[in-house]
Design a protein that fits this description.
By secondary structure, the protein is of the alpha/beta class. It is built from 6 helices and 15 strands. The strands form 3 sheets. The chain has a 9-stranded mixed beta sheet, sandwiched between helices. The protein has a 4-stranded mixed beta sheet with strand order 6-5-7-12, covered by helices on one side. The chain has a two-stranded antiparallel ribbon with strand order 8-9. β13 and β14 form a beta hairpin.
Length: 215
Protein backbone atom coordinates (compact mmCIF):
# COMPACT_ATOMS: atom_id res chain seq x y z
CA UNK A 1 0.00 0.00 0.00
CA UNK A 2 1.16 3.53 -0.70
CA UNK A 3 2.63 5.50 2.18
CA UNK A 4 0.41 8.54 1.56
CA UNK A 5 -3.31 8.38 0.79
CA UNK A 6 -5.00 11.38 -0.84
CA UNK A 7 -8.61 11.16 0.30
CA UNK A 8 -11.24 11.18 -2.44
CA UNK A 9 -14.63 12.25 -1.11
CA UNK A 10 -15.92 13.53 -4.45
CA UNK A 11 -14.95 17.15 -3.71
CA UNK A 12 -11.40 18.08 -4.48
CA UNK A 13 -8.57 18.99 -6.78
CA UNK A 14 -7.18 15.47 -6.55
CA UNK A 15 -5.19 15.41 -9.78
CA UNK A 16 -3.17 18.54 -9.06
CA UNK A 17 -2.34 17.35 -5.54
CA UNK A 18 -1.39 13.90 -6.78
CA UNK A 19 0.71 15.40 -9.58
CA UNK A 20 2.58 17.66 -7.15
CA UNK A 21 3.36 14.70 -4.89
CA UNK A 22 4.45 12.32 -7.64
CA UNK A 23 6.68 15.01 -9.17
CA UNK A 24 8.61 14.93 -5.89
CA UNK A 25 8.85 11.15 -5.88
CA UNK A 26 6.34 10.67 -3.06
CA UNK A 27 4.55 7.34 -2.77
CA UNK A 28 0.91 8.41 -3.07
CA UNK A 29 -2.45 6.95 -4.00
CA UNK A 30 -5.93 8.48 -4.34
CA UNK A 31 -8.50 6.47 -2.40
CA UNK A 32 -11.88 6.57 -0.68
CA UNK A 33 -11.43 3.16 0.93
CA UNK A 34 -11.81 3.54 4.73
CA UNK A 35 -9.42 0.66 5.41
CA UNK A 36 -6.68 2.10 3.20
CA UNK A 37 -7.13 5.50 4.82
CA UNK A 38 -7.03 4.06 8.33
CA UNK A 39 -3.87 2.07 7.59
CA UNK A 40 -1.99 4.77 5.67
CA UNK A 41 1.25 6.17 7.05
CA UNK A 42 0.00 9.66 6.19
CA UNK A 43 -3.08 11.23 4.64
CA UNK A 44 -3.77 14.36 2.62
CA UNK A 45 -7.29 15.81 2.71
CA UNK A 46 -7.73 18.30 -0.15
CA UNK A 47 -10.99 19.94 -1.08
CA UNK A 48 -12.79 22.60 -3.09
CA UNK A 49 -16.47 23.28 -2.58
CA UNK A 50 -19.12 23.61 0.10
CA UNK A 51 -18.51 22.60 3.72
CA UNK A 52 -21.95 21.05 4.17
CA UNK A 53 -21.68 18.88 1.07
CA UNK A 54 -18.20 17.78 2.12
CA UNK A 55 -19.37 16.59 5.54
CA UNK A 56 -22.31 14.74 3.96
CA UNK A 57 -19.93 13.00 1.54
CA UNK A 58 -17.52 12.03 4.30
CA UNK A 59 -20.41 10.54 6.28
CA UNK A 60 -21.83 8.61 3.29
CA UNK A 61 -18.41 7.18 2.46
CA UNK A 62 -17.76 6.22 6.12
CA UNK A 63 -14.57 8.27 6.18
CA UNK A 64 -15.03 10.32 9.35
CA UNK A 65 -13.94 7.61 11.77
CA UNK A 66 -10.84 6.61 9.75
CA UNK A 67 -9.72 10.24 9.53
CA UNK A 68 -10.19 10.79 13.26
CA UNK A 69 -8.47 7.51 14.11
CA UNK A 70 -5.54 8.44 11.90
CA UNK A 71 -5.11 11.80 13.61
CA UNK A 72 -5.65 10.38 17.10
CA UNK A 73 -2.92 7.82 16.38
CA UNK A 74 -0.52 10.73 15.80
CA UNK A 75 0.02 9.99 12.11
CA UNK A 76 0.87 12.83 9.70
CA UNK A 77 -2.12 14.75 8.33
CA UNK A 78 -2.07 17.46 5.65
CA UNK A 79 -5.26 19.43 4.96
CA UNK A 80 -5.70 21.78 2.01
CA UNK A 81 -8.33 24.53 1.61
CA UNK A 82 -11.67 22.84 2.42
CA UNK A 83 -9.57 20.08 3.98
CA UNK A 84 -8.42 22.67 6.53
CA UNK A 85 -11.91 23.97 7.23
CA UNK A 86 -13.39 20.51 7.83
CA UNK A 87 -11.10 20.06 10.83
CA UNK A 88 -12.96 22.75 12.76
CA UNK A 89 -15.90 22.57 15.13
CA UNK A 90 -18.45 24.14 12.81
CA UNK A 91 -19.00 26.31 9.75
CA UNK A 92 -21.49 29.10 9.21
CA UNK A 93 -21.68 28.34 5.47
CA UNK A 94 -25.36 27.81 4.52
CA UNK A 95 -26.27 27.81 8.22
CA UNK A 96 -24.30 26.21 11.00
CA UNK A 97 -22.96 22.77 10.18
CA UNK A 98 -20.82 20.67 12.51
CA UNK A 99 -17.36 19.75 11.30
CA UNK A 100 -14.88 17.10 12.45
CA UNK A 101 -14.22 19.10 15.64
CA UNK A 102 -10.55 18.19 15.71
CA UNK A 103 -9.48 21.82 16.05
CA UNK A 104 -11.65 24.13 18.15
CA UNK A 105 -13.03 27.08 16.27
CA UNK A 106 -15.37 28.18 13.50
CA UNK A 107 -15.32 28.64 9.75
CA UNK A 108 -16.66 32.10 8.92
CA UNK A 109 -17.25 34.17 5.79
CA UNK A 110 -15.24 37.19 4.78
CA UNK A 111 -17.02 40.43 5.75
CA UNK A 112 -18.93 42.19 2.98
CA UNK A 113 -16.88 45.34 3.39
CA UNK A 114 -13.85 46.75 5.21
CA UNK A 115 -13.97 50.38 6.36
CA UNK A 116 -16.69 51.14 3.82
CA UNK A 117 -14.92 49.40 0.94
CA UNK A 118 -16.67 46.40 -0.59
CA UNK A 119 -14.69 43.19 -0.31
CA UNK A 120 -14.49 41.02 -3.42
CA UNK A 121 -15.45 37.48 -2.42
CA UNK A 122 -14.25 34.86 -3.11
CA UNK A 123 -10.60 35.72 -2.83
CA UNK A 124 -9.05 34.26 -5.97
CA UNK A 125 -5.37 34.62 -6.71
CA UNK A 126 -2.00 35.21 -5.13
CA UNK A 127 -1.57 36.59 -1.63
CA UNK A 128 1.12 36.49 1.03
CA UNK A 129 1.56 34.49 4.22
CA UNK A 130 3.35 35.70 7.33
CA UNK A 131 4.27 33.81 10.51
CA UNK A 132 2.24 34.22 13.66
CA UNK A 133 5.23 35.21 15.78
CA UNK A 134 8.99 35.73 15.88
CA UNK A 135 9.63 31.98 15.66
CA UNK A 136 8.73 32.25 12.00
CA UNK A 137 8.32 29.04 10.04
CA UNK A 138 11.01 27.10 11.87
CA UNK A 139 10.30 23.40 12.50
CA UNK A 140 7.21 23.44 10.27
CA UNK A 141 6.57 22.39 6.67
CA UNK A 142 6.95 26.08 5.80
CA UNK A 143 10.58 26.12 6.90
CA UNK A 144 12.66 27.78 4.20
CA UNK A 145 9.67 29.73 2.88
CA UNK A 146 10.31 33.43 3.28
CA UNK A 147 8.05 35.78 5.22
CA UNK A 148 5.43 37.35 2.93
CA UNK A 149 5.87 34.66 0.27
CA UNK A 150 3.09 34.63 -2.32
CA UNK A 151 0.85 31.54 -2.48
CA UNK A 152 -2.42 30.80 -4.27
CA UNK A 153 -5.87 31.14 -2.69
CA UNK A 154 -9.45 30.39 -3.77
CA UNK A 155 -11.99 30.78 -0.95
CA UNK A 156 -14.90 32.73 0.51
CA UNK A 157 -14.63 31.39 4.07
CA UNK A 158 -11.72 31.20 6.48
CA UNK A 159 -10.97 29.52 9.80
CA UNK A 160 -11.04 31.28 13.16
CA UNK A 161 -9.27 29.01 15.70
CA UNK A 162 -10.21 29.43 19.35
CA UNK A 163 -6.62 28.74 20.43
CA UNK A 164 -4.01 31.08 19.01
CA UNK A 165 -1.31 28.43 19.47
CA UNK A 166 -2.92 26.44 16.63
CA UNK A 167 -2.25 29.28 14.16
CA UNK A 168 0.85 29.01 11.97
CA UNK A 169 0.35 31.87 9.51
CA UNK A 170 -1.75 34.94 8.90
CA UNK A 171 -2.80 36.53 5.62
CA UNK A 172 -4.16 40.01 5.00
CA UNK A 173 -6.92 40.28 2.41
CA UNK A 174 -7.87 43.88 1.62
CA UNK A 175 -7.35 44.91 5.24
CA UNK A 176 -8.82 41.79 6.84
CA UNK A 177 -6.27 39.66 8.71
CA UNK A 178 -7.11 35.99 9.07
CA UNK A 179 -5.56 32.60 9.81
CA UNK A 180 -4.25 31.02 6.60
CA UNK A 181 -2.62 27.87 8.01
CA UNK A 182 -2.55 25.83 11.21
CA UNK A 183 -0.17 23.47 12.94
CA UNK A 184 -1.32 21.28 15.82
CA UNK A 185 0.68 18.22 16.85
CA UNK A 186 0.64 15.92 13.80
CA UNK A 187 -1.75 18.19 11.87
CA UNK A 188 -0.61 20.68 9.23
CA UNK A 189 -3.25 22.38 7.10
CA UNK A 190 -3.38 25.37 4.78
CA UNK A 191 -6.13 27.58 3.40
CA UNK A 192 -3.99 28.19 0.32
CA UNK A 193 -3.15 25.62 -2.36
CA UNK A 194 0.54 24.61 -2.27
CA UNK A 195 0.08 22.54 -5.44
CA UNK A 196 -0.89 25.74 -7.29
CA UNK A 197 1.82 27.88 -5.70
CA UNK A 198 4.79 27.14 -7.94
CA UNK A 199 8.16 25.91 -6.75
CA UNK A 200 7.64 27.27 -3.22
CA UNK A 201 4.45 25.27 -2.97
CA UNK A 202 6.27 22.10 -4.01
CA UNK A 203 8.85 22.87 -1.33
CA UNK A 204 6.04 22.77 1.26
CA UNK A 205 5.02 19.27 0.17
CA UNK A 206 8.64 18.14 0.23
CA UNK A 207 9.25 19.64 3.69
CA UNK A 208 6.14 17.96 5.06
CA UNK A 209 7.19 14.61 3.63
CA UNK A 210 10.77 14.89 4.88
CA UNK A 211 9.77 16.01 8.37
CA UNK A 212 7.46 12.99 8.65
CA UNK A 213 9.95 10.48 7.20
CA UNK A 214 7.82 9.88 4.11
CA UNK A 215 10.65 10.46 1.65
Amino acid sequence: MSKIIIIDYNLGNLFSVQHACTSLGLDVKVSQDPIEIKNAEAIILPGVGAFNEAMINLEKLNLIEPIKDHINNNKPFFGICLGLQLLFTESEEFGNRKGLNIIEGKVVRFPKEIEGNKLIVPQIGWNTISPKDSKGFKDSPLEGIKDNEFVYFVHSYFVAPENEEDILTYTNYEGHRYCSSVRKNNIFATQFHPEKSGKEGLKIYKNWAKQNNLI
